Amino acid sequence: MLRDLARTILKVDWPKFHPRAALRCTPAILLPLVVGILLDHPRQGSMMAAGAFGVGFGSFQELYRSRKAPMLYASLGICVSSWIGTLVGFSRIGSVLLTSAWAFLYGGISALSPGASWVALQCVIWLIISTAYPASGSHALQRGVFMLLGGLLQTLFVVGFWKLERVETPAFGGVGPQEAETSIQGIANSFHPESHSGAYAVRAAVTMAAAASLCWWLQVENGYWIPMTAAIVMKPDFRQTYERGLARIAGTLVGAVVASLIAAHLRHAPGVYATLITLFAFLCHSIVFANYAVYSVCVTSYVVFLLAFSGLQENIVVEHRVINTLLGGVLAFLAHAIFWKFQKTEEPVTTKTVTE
To answer: How far apart are CA 101 and CA 98, in angstroms?
Structure first.
């Protein structure tokens, strides 16, 4: 089994390596960084770039038979989740309960279609991140607004390139049963406790409650990577969870080494960081559906330099990224192993979502 897992993790699906699609996502990431440098507001520029980066993966998705819908829904969902998470983040209990509730909704929605699952996962991720940075008043709105602007800018660029080139990015994320996306009965069935997706929703809620609680209890820097990693790694299928988890952990370790080596030999300047952020974002969008382990290497480097652009030290970010990713991945493994014993069947998985 381990040999098969290793072979799967290392295999590259070259037909899904798509640098052309990645190039369409690059301008919306670079532009906010450049403007942030020119206006001396790197933090706001990095927020917009992060929104554009995340929404860019929506160009590989389809929702309601629309290629634009995943990006637009993700932009709005990220914005709202960021607002709510920022306000609730002052309360530890509130943060744990809200994270668990968002995870439960994600678990049920994941059965509807790949596009719906991907949008829901973006909302969970940015809720988790925002609870780690609580704020009130106008500051509570700032992160969500800049994320929304970045997402909309990405959508504008991608759709504009599609029209100019008269070709769309392949829907590697999967299409799925379109009728389920608008069926009220289908939504209700996906949350039924005896259904496969209902069981997954419960497991997601419990796992994320445990991960968020561990984050608050440890009080480590950038501890939100623990529940975030658990959310990304956790899948309905037993094998897919372990494949994804091992790829994420291995890729993070290699990415940490890569980022550290680059940081040790670069000039610590905003322009250099902006270049590296854009480069690794391009690589992430190119390889994400071809090989998840390589994607994890690239996304680790992307995150390190994005946070360095905002003012954090690279070596500290690398250390936190490795430790918290390991904790989140192991927690997802344990949760799946425990729940798997009580689950009657393991249904085939038709939904595949990939993101940061």
So the answer is: 5
The DSSP bridge partners found for residue 66 are 63
pLDDT, mean of residues 321-345: 84
**Do 308 and 266 contact (CB within 8 A), yes or no?**
no
Is the pTM higher than 0.70? The answer reads yes
Per-chain mean pLDDT for the chain:
90
Residue 30 pLDDT class (50, 70, 90 cuts): very high
Distance between CA atoms of residues 107 and 120, nearest Å:
9
Among candidates 199, 211, 229, 234, which has minimal Cα distance to 95? 211
Contact status, residue 235 vs residue 241, Cβ threshold 8 Å: yes
**Spatial separation of the C-alpha atoms in residues 153 and 291, rounded to whole Å:** 27
Report residue 171 as tokens: 């829907």
Q: Specify the pLDDT at position 57.
A: 98
Residue 304 · residue 318 · CB < 8 Å: yes
Q: Helix or strand or coil: residue 66?
A: strand
276-287 CB burial, b ≥16 within 10 A, e <16: bbbbbbbbbbbb
Torsion of CA 66, 67, 72, 73, to 10 degrees: 60
pLDDT tens-digit series, residues 168-189: 999 998 776 554 445 666 677 7
Is the distance from CB of 117 to CB of 109 less than 8 angstroms?
Answer: yes
Spell 82-107 as b/e; 16+ CB within 10 A means b.
bbbbbbbbeeeeebbebbbebbbbbb
Q: Between the CA of residue 281 and those of 254, 264, 272, 312, 351, what are the distances in Å?
A: 17, 20, 14, 19, 24
Residue 287 in tokens: 């390889």
Q: Three-class SS of residue 63? A: strand
Predicted confidence (pLDDT) per residue in 75-123, tens digit: 999 999 999 999 999 999 999 999 999 999 999 998 888 999 999 999 9
Distance CA 103, CA 67 (A): 25
**Residues forming a β-bridge with 63:** 66
pLDDT of residue 340: 74
What are φ and ψ of residue 158, in 5° steps?
-60, -50
